Fold this protein.
Amino acid sequence: MTRHFLRDDDLTQAEQSEILDLAIELKKDRFQVKPLAGPQTVAVIFDKSSTRTRVSFAVGIADLGGVPLIISTANSQLGGKETATDTARVLERQVAAIVWRTFAQSGLEEMAAGTTVPVVNGLSDDFHPCQLLADLLTIREHRGALAGSTVTFLGDGASNMAQSYLLAGAVAGMHVRIASPGAFAPTASVVDDARRVAAVNGGSIELFTDPVAAVTGADVVVTDTWVSMGKEDEKSKRLRDLGAYRVDAELMGTASPGALFLHCLPADRGFEVTADVIDGPQSAVWDEAENRLHAQKALLVWLLARA
Ligand code: CP
Ligand code: NVA
């Protein structure tokens, strides 16, 4: 049965942990396994801009002995004349897996339902699960065990990053706190799903409006752009409404000693985070960006072994 990775809770805690263990092994020697030797091709499709996702999948697929086929929907039939299902049925006869960065989560679900090869969410409006594998890997490297640790995400609680923290943190057995204004709270059904998963894995989910209460004692502090791709027309409102959730040195000072700062990038210094925090000693954002490579390679190895 083909496995897909469309949202963070598509993996059990044991499966998530197995992929992170494999990522740590692959990081020691990038060229040790070649499941795509042949070479086989992996299609990586972008409806939105990208630097990290594009580079890390292209390099990772090459490391695994394969060929990355980077497709921009701006010059393909997908999204224009052709449905996700029809595109998937064409691609599955020629590629080993499909990675897709898109808008609606429902498009990914449609594509996965219509194909026999693994489909990976390279970011949707709702979730960014590949980024979360990289973030969890970075937290493990810098802070040790995930289960029982506390992570606070500040800013747009309905963003793909916040919602992936809810699900991936719940799978990992973490205590996940989201701090946002009420109008930017996570989607209720995602919170419900995260609470159910957290209960199974010994974690917890808490929503805050007070940023200081949310960060106090946290082991990891995370933020993301206040203006996600597709939200550009709301920019001035978002900068105004989210201003109290900026991560600065004073707010970091309320976290636990040695707390880690993460940001998936790209960052707007001076908006969601001050330069002294993102460029300071508690920040692990460059390790986090590198870990996209190792985590996604492990994910592909894992998915291809089940395809
Ligand atoms: N973090 C992340 O996904 O970056 P890109 O948008 O550059 O891929
Ligand atoms: N939330 C951001 C993440 C970018 C990697 C966005 O969707 O634009």
In short: The two ends are 7 Å apart (CA to CA). Residues 3 and 303 are 6 Å apart (CA to CA). The longest helix spans residues 285-304. Residues 50-53, 123, 131, 264-265 surround phosphoric acid mono(formamide)ester (ligand 1) (CB under 6 Å).
